Structures are given as structure tokens and as C-alpha cells.
Amino acid sequence: MSKRAVLEVIALDAEDAVAAQAGGADRLELVTDMAADGLTPSRETFAEIRAAVDISLRVMLRLADGFAAGDVDTLVRRARELRSEGADEFVLGFLDETGGPDLAAVEALAGAVDGCRWTFHRAIDRTPDRDALRKQLGDFPGLDTYLTAGSATGVDEGLPTLLAEAARSGEPGYEQQILVGGGLRLDHVPRLRAAGVDGFHIGGASRPDGWSAPVCADAVARWRAAVDA
């Protein structure tokens, strides 16, 4: 039997979380403020969502739009507060002034989450050398996933990169799961699945009425069927 693909859905609150789980999501990415492309939610929001659903939750660690870490001490404090609330999976990803991974910030946060699993998010799509970034980050404890569209502009342009990286699965720097998100459409899924990609991330696609409306369970169910096909 083939491995079930992971379907991750962005959730802003408990209502989103309940609908996403009902539609078949395996995991939620918890954020606030999508106008800033997703920032760290409060510990109260995390607690409400954790009480509402029993699927995996990955919590964003980011204070401002973009890929600069900013105030790392504040990020570390927020991470520890969320850990004390029960959070055990995270999302983070920062670049330095050269466009390479901000290793100091990543090290500080990897230490703060104390071995928990985490995703390096779409900062990988903004670096000038994806291969170098992967190899620089490869030994960080807890890193098990890259959220990527293969390109800063989205999956349409990034598809060749995603397929090439999927073909390198298991090589040094390529042991982590590829979680595809960013301009992802249902028609992309068959080709990605055929290449061995088994992680899919949706945000706006789960909200047919836009970000001002909640997650739609039926929309998530359509994605569940597509990634399982």
C-alpha cells in the first residue's frame, strides 16, 4: 500500500481547525495575520486550537513579513511560551543579508524548541543556492520538512525544481520531506505524486470565499481526494 500523503492546511483559529480536520487534513500550520504572510499566533490561540482538534499542529515562529529573523530573543521567548503550552511542532526559516540561511537565528530557535520537529518554510525559495542551504541546515536537530514552491513565484515556475529535488530524496541535504505549497493547484498534484512528493500545503485553496472567510471542509476534502488518488 502506498504511503498516505500529508495534507497540511493553514488555520487561523479553532473554527478553521475543526473544518480542516473534518475535511481530512493531517496537520495544521497555525499562524496569525495573513496580511503579513503568517506570523506567530498567541499561546491562547494555540491552546484553543489544541483543545478543538486532535491532529498535528505546526506553529509559525515569525514576527514580521519577510525572511529576516529580526528580534531573535523575542522569537526564542515566544517559542518557549508555546512549548510550555504544549506545542511540539514548529515552522521557521530565516535568511541572512547574503540570502543564505541565518544559521545563528535557526540555531537559537532549534535550541528553544528543544528537539521538536520543525519545517523550514519558503525562505528556501528566496535563497540563491538551494542546494547549499539544504546542506548547511541538514544536521540541525528536528528539521524534517521543507515548505517550498520550488520558486519564489510559485509552483508553476518551480515545478521542475521540485521534481529534481524529489528525485534526490535520501541524498545528503535531501532527507527531509518536501511539502509543496505556494501557488499550488489541484492539477499540479498528479505529477508531483508520480514523482514521489508526499506533502501538500494549502491556504487560500481551502477558503473558496477568501481569507475573510473560514476554512471550508468541502474544499479540504477535494484536496484530500486528490492527494490520495
Q: Profile the largest sheet.
A: 8 strands, parallel
Average pLDDT works out at 96
Helical residues, percent? 25-40%
Helix-strand topology string: EHEHEHEHEHEHEHEH
Strand tally is 8
Q: Distance N terminus to C terminus?
A: 12 Å
Question: What secondary-structure arrangement, pairings included, does this model have?
Answer:
Blueprint lengths: L5 E6 L2 H10 L3 E4 L12 H10 L3 E5 L11 H13 L4 E4 L10 H10 L4 E4 L9 H8 L5 E6 L6 H13 L9 E4 L8 H6 L4 E4 L14 H12 L1
Parallel strand pairs: 1-2, 1-8, 2-3, 3-4, 4-5, 5-6, 6-7
Helix pairs in contact: 1-2, 1-8, 3-4
InterPro entries: CutC-like, CutC-like_dom_sf
Pfam families: CutC
Protein name: Copper homeostasis protein cutC homolog
Describe the structure.
This protein is 36% helix and 16% strand. Helix 1 runs parallel beside helix 2 (43-52). Helix 4 (103-112) links the parallel strand 4 and strand 5. The protein is built from eight helices and eight strands. It has an eight-stranded parallel β-sheet, with helices on one face. The chain starts with 5 loop residues before the first strand and ends with a helix. The protein is an alpha/beta fold and 229 residues long. This is Copper homeostasis protein cutC homolog. It comes from Streptomyces longisporoflavus.
